[in-house]
Write a structure and sequence with these properties.
Blueprint: H1 15-37, H2 52-59, H3 64-81, H4 86-105, H5 107-113, E1 120-123, H6 125-139, H7 144-157, H8 165-169, E2 179-184, E3 187-191, H9 196-208, H10 216-239, H11 255-263, H12 272-289, H13 295-304, H14 307-328, H15 341-346, H16 348-351, H17 359-385, H18 391-394
Parallel strand pairs: 1-3
Antiparallel strand pairs: 2-3
Helix pairs in contact: 1-3, 1-12, 1-13, 1-14, 1-17, 2-11, 3-6, 3-9, 3-12, 4-5, 4-6, 5-14, 6-9, 7-9, 10-12, 14-17
Length: 396
């Protein structure tokens, strides 16, 4: 039986890709809502002191970044299948990548900090996506099998650099180590997302796009087998504290703390185990979503069609909400302006000392935020769809 089909069905957006990106966006919004509004001097990943539900609230958001990076590669492969030349896609990847990196210094930095003149720029999601796209622009000219093998090797082997980053990489240690460096007396750059493993994810995601050359039932089987295999590999590696994660899990006096320890994985950079337990379940979700259409999937796809718009807009809204809550409660709201982003992430009490709601209200705030963002995303998505020829909108 011929498993391959013509690409005529790729002329429209693939609903499952938008829906899964939508799930990642929803979890991302929860994480950012927690960061801005939850009053806590305890880090969510502090196994000993954080509550189990606070830890889980943070853990489920780990799904976001790997999915974003994986699917940016997939989208480029599908664009080529849809008739775009590799030269065109390479140019788009470079220009789009540079644009995303620039937004990290400008638009994204402002909505996070309300700081007009940056003091510390945190290079995180947009930076990782941008650099990955630029690197991917070279690999699309190689045979896909080579690109896949290089991507897998990067993902598997990068943990060999753990604890040796500075020694082996020298001035390039920022590519595998979360690192802050002084550029001028009043300006620092924080390499929050070390890029080596993210490049591997983008390469694998690009080759994953080849699955849409096959019949849906074949594609679904591949997704399920890959998802289950990656998840099982995570369990085996983690259970015996084998290779692929610097944080060794230990048994505590409660099941909750032991479970949290087992799931406490490195994100900066993302360890092999971190990527296994995030990308594996993502493949399983693809199995259930692929080639299906229902109201739930269509709702998720509304978010997934406008990721950059959602990212910038929802952070701006949450930031403003934090100021409003602080004002109503007669707290010092000056801490919400000109935020030092390094202090914000490194010392939550610096920003969150104003007694803002409990974890339950965080989930309520998140639900309200999603309601607002659904309406905004739907309208912006329609506007963007009606102006497909706009070069500017293609970058937003």
């Amino acid at each position: 039986m011929n498993l391959q089909i013509k690409n005529s069905g790729l002329n429209e957006r693939i609903l499952s890709i938008d829906a899964i990106r939508g799930i990642a966006i929803i979890f991302m919004a929860l994480d950012h809502t927690r960061e801005f509004l939850l009053a806590s001097n305890v880090e969510a990943t502090d196994i000993v002191h954080a509550s189990f539900w606070l830890f889980i609230t943070r853990f489920i958001t780990n799904f976001c970044a790997p999915v974003f990076v994986l699917l940016v590669g997939t989208s480029m492969n599908l664009a080529i299948q849809n008739g775009k030349s590799k030269s065109y896609i390479a140019k788009f990847l470079v220009t789009r990548g540079i644009w995303l990196c620039l937004t990290e210094f400008t638009i994204v930095h402002f909505v996070w900090t309300f700081e007009l003149i940056p003091s510390v720029v945190d290079l995180q999601t947009m930076y990782a996506l941008g650099i990955s796209m630029i690197i991917l622009s070279f690999f699309i000219f190689l045979p896909n099998l080579i690109t896949l093998m290089i991507g897998i090797i990067i993902i598997i082997s990068h943990n060999l650099l753990d604890s040796k980053d500075a020694e082996l990489l020298g001035n390039l240690k920022f590519i595998h180590l979360s690192y802050i460096t002084q550029i001028t007396p009043g300006f620092k750059i924080w390499f929050d997302y070390p890029i080596i493993p993210w490049i591997g994810v983008a390469l694998v995601g690009y080759v994953m796009g080849d699955l849409w050359k096959y019949l849906p039932k074949v594609r679904k089987k591949i997704f399920l087998s890959c998802g289950l295999s990656l998840s099982a590999l995570f369990i085996v590696l983690r259970l015996y504290n084998l290779y692929g994660e610097a944080n060794i899990w230990v048994a505590y006096d409660t099941i909750a703390k032991t479970t949290a320890s087992f799931l406490n994985l490195s994100k900066y950079p993302p360890s092999l185990m971190y990527l296994l337990i995030t990308i594996g379940p993502a493949f399983i979700v693809f199995y259930f979503f692929e080639n299906k259409r229902n109201k739930f999937i269509e709702l998720l796809s509304v978010f997934g069609r406008v990721p950059f718009f959602f990212y910038v807009t929802h952070i701006f809204i949450i930031h403003c909400l934090a100021i409003i809550i602080g004002y109503i409660r007669n707290k010092d709201i000056t801490v919400y302006f000109n935020i030092n982003i390094y202090d914000f992430f490194g010392q939550p009490q610096y920003l969150l000392s104003s007694g803002i709601p409990s974890l339950g209200l965080i989930y309520l705030s998140w639900a309200v935020l999603l309601g607002v963002m659904y309406q905004l995303s739907k309208r912006y998505g329609k506007f963007k769809s009606n102006h497909k020829s706009s070069i500017i909108l293609s970058y937003l």
